[in-house]
Structure formats: C-alpha cells, structure tokens
Design a protein that fits this description.
113 residues; mainly beta; Jelly Rolls; six-stranded antiparallel sheet; 6 strands; globular
C-alpha cells in the first residue's frame, strides 16, 4: 500500500524549538526547520548530531566551522553537515536559513545530542 498522506505546514503556526528554530514539515525519514532572523553571534557551542543536515541560506551571512574547515555561507549557498561531524556556526549578519535533517532531528530526543 502506498502512503498518500499529504501534510501542509504554515510556518506562522509552527512550533519552535529550544534554540529558536521553527519546525516545518516532517516525514518519517526527513524533516525541515527554519532559522529566522538569527542575530549575529560568536561561535555557538560545538556539537555533534546523530543526523545529517543539509541547509540553504535565504538571507544574511554565517560561517560554518566543521572538522577543521571554515566555510562562509551567503544567500543562495547550501551546505551539508554529515551525521557525527563536530561543528559550530558563527552568525556574521542577521541570518535566515532552511535546513532539512535526516532522520528528523526533533524525534526521539535527537535534537539534544
């Protein structure tokens, strides 16, 4: 049997996470979240996750430091953080981005790792 369910999520009504992220559509294997108007910051805490992240910069600028590399992120850029890779972000200019996580970050406490 084919899963024919369709989910529409309006970001205006979406829940937010502990870090200010807005949870968007979520399926069984992948989910999306929005980081909206993140203010400039120094390095966020270094983290490793058990899920893969792909992202797309809508506006602003940031630097992703990952496994000894620094990658500048600007509007129109996309990036990948492999599962288990130690990384941090430095927001240089008010930043808005959409990320997809696989498996979904917010399920089963994965976001806390």
């Amino acid at each position: 049997m084919t899963d024919t369910s369709v989910t529409k999520v309006s970001s205006a009504d979406s829940p937010t996470g502990d870090q200010g992220e807005v949870y968007l559509a979520s399926g069984k294997r992948v989910s999306m979240r929005l980081w909206r108007d993140e203010p400039p910051t120094q390095d966020k805490p270094r983290r490793k996750h058990g899920y893969e992240v792909v992202g797309f910069v809508v506006s602003g600028r940031a630097e992703l430091e990952i496994e000894g590399q620094t990658v500048r992120l600007e509007p129109g850029d996309s990036w990948v953080v492999p599962a288990g890779a130690e990384h941090t972000y430095r927001i240089l200019e008010t930043f808005t981005a959409v990320e997809a996580t696989a498996p979904p970050a917010q399920v089963h406490g994965r976001e806390k790792s």
